[in-house]
Structure formats: C-alpha cells, structure tokens
Design brief:
Elements (H helix, E strand, L loop, with lengths): L9 H4 L16 H23 L3 H4 L13 H7 L2 H34 L3 H15 L6 H11 L5 H25 L3 H9 L4 H12 L1 H16 L3 H6 L8 H7 L1 E2 L2 E2 L1 H27 L9
Antiparallel strand pairs: 1-2
C-alpha cells in the first residue's frame, strides 16, 4: 500500500516578495514651504542658544557671531539664582491648574455644542467667537477689582481663574470638531445596550476623542505657561512671579545681560519640549479612524 503525499502549492510555499517602497514625490509647494518654515523657527532658536553660550562682550562683537569660545557661565549664574526654582514652581502650578480647570469646563461644552443642532448652538458659537476676540488688557481692571474683593490678589487661584476664563472659549471651539468627528452610530449602539448619556460620554466619546483632548490640553498648557499680563498685575509681590515675568525682569534701565536672558529663555522652554516629546505620538494619531466599519 503506497502513501501519496500531497505536493504543496508552489505559490503558497514561496516566500512573498517584499513590496517595493513608494518613492516620495517632489512637492513643488509643500517642500519649499517646509524649508521656509524651518528657517523661520530654527534661526531664532539657534540665535538664542548661541547667545546663551557667549560672554557679554561677545554678544555685541560683530566678529564673534559663530566663531567664539563657548562658556556655561550664563547657565551657572541663572541656576544659582534663588528665585528661578520658585518661578518655575509658580509657572507649573498655574499652567497645570489652568489646564485642568479649562478642560473640566470645555470638554462638556464642546461635546454639547457638537451634538446639539439648534439656533441656540449657533448663538453659543457666535458668543464664543466674540469672547475669543476680546483683548486681554480689557479684562485686567475689572478682574483686579473682583479679585481684590474676593481676596484673590497675590494668589495662584486668582491667576488660574483669570487664565481659565480667557482660554475656555478657545478650548471649546477647538474641542467641538473632535467630538463631531465621532460617529453617532457609536452613541446609538450604546443607547441600545442601555447605557445612559453620562456613561456613553465617559466610556465611549471621551476615550475616542482623547487625541483632541490631548491636543487642547497641550495648547492650553503652553499658553498658560507663558502667561505674563495677568501674572504681573495680580501678583503684588515679585517673589511670586512665574517664569514669564522673571524673564521680563531681566530687562532693566541699567542694561541687559543678553547671555543670561537667553540662558533663562532656554531653561524656560525645556518643560515645553518635554511635554511635546511625551505627547507627540498621541497628538499625531487619529483614533477615530476605523471606528465604524
């Protein structure tokens, strides 16, 4: 009795050939535009870093723009300043508090404006746009009087509330398109399964739109980290100033220490770079793709 061994299909057993990589096409508009934007942002950053590594005498010398002996004296002097870490702590508290309070209000507001289609929604969007256009300087005197009556002057809570009121319209308008991009079929399926509206929002809508929440939170943190006007007016003692106000104090009538100022600017930007490093992947991914098949 002979045993017949079936022959394997040559097509199935053969290893699949790798797909050829697509060659990137030259983009006549996007390519040069990227180069221009890179130069616009890279040249000032390079200038700041190089100036922070110079001696004060090398800054005003035209012959030492790129050829000079680097030194870390400016960073040593800045780090030895007693008010630097206090100002950094103040900036961190203000930025984190503003981001949390802004998202607490803007996320439900953006979701409501995304799911309710009526004349009230149109009016609400118009009011948010108008509030976004109000200059920050117009709010300083009224808020100063209000915070003075409430005892919030020279307190972090006063600056956090002021920054939150300023950034809520921006955050709400930014979050609304992310919630509108979430298919309504997901909410309908959750409703059929018996989920309530709050349960649907917290368990389905918010996790899917988390890239929008991360984007908005990052931008709010960035704007509140560099807040200057409210901090200068609502903090009565300079010892409570954040980093943005500490930078402004480096400019005086007796001259400017350019290496120290640039070194302080580099140190101030480090937390923002760390934030973008950890949130870049989440900001880049579109989590709503493929939600409905």
């Amino acid at each position: 009795m002979s045993i017949v061994i079936p022959r394997a299909d040559a097509t199935a057993s053969a290893p699949s050939s790798p797909q050829p990589r697509r060659k990137k096409r030259f983009e006549p508009v996007a390519g040069p535009l990227r180069v221009v934007l890179l130069l616009i942002y890279a040249v000032p950053i390079l200038f700041i870093v190089l100036t922070s590594l110079k001696q004060p005498g090398d800054v005003i010398s035209s012959q030492s723009s790129f050829l000079f002996t680097p030194t870390l004296d400016a960073y040593t002097n800045v780090l030895s300043t007693s008010g630097l870490f206090v100002a950094m702590q103040q900036s961190l508290v203000i930025a984190a508090g503003t981001t949390a309070l802004t998202l607490l209000v803007a996320i439900p507001a953006g979701y409501g404006l995304a799911r309710v289609d009526s004349r009230i929604t149109t009016i609400g969007l118009g009011l948010l746009i108008v509030l976004q256009m109000v200059p920050q300087t117009a709010n300083v005197i009224p808020l100063y009087q209000i915070f003075g009556a409430w005892g919030l002057l020279d307190q972090n809570a006063g600056v956090i509330i002021a920054d939150t009121a300023l950034l809520i319209p921006f955050a709400t308008l930014l979050l609304r398109p992310f919630f509108r991009a979430v298919p309504e079929a997901l909410e309908e399926a959750a409703s059929i399964d018996g989920a309530s509206i709050p349960r649907t929002f917290w368990s389905i809508m918010l996790p899917i739109a988390r890239n929008g929440v991360a984007t908005t939170g990052t931008l709010v943190f960035l704007l509140s980290w560099g807040e200057f006007l409210y901090a200068v007016n609502f903090f009565l003692s300079p010892g409570n100033y954040p980093l943005s106000a500490l930078l402004a104090q480096q400019v005086s009538a007796f001259g400017i220490n350019w290496p120290g100022l640039m070194a302080l600017g580099v140190i101030t930007s480090i937390p923002i770079l760390i934030l973008f490093t950890f949130t870049y992947r989440l900001l880049r991914e579109g989590l709503t793709l493929g939600a409905v098949k």
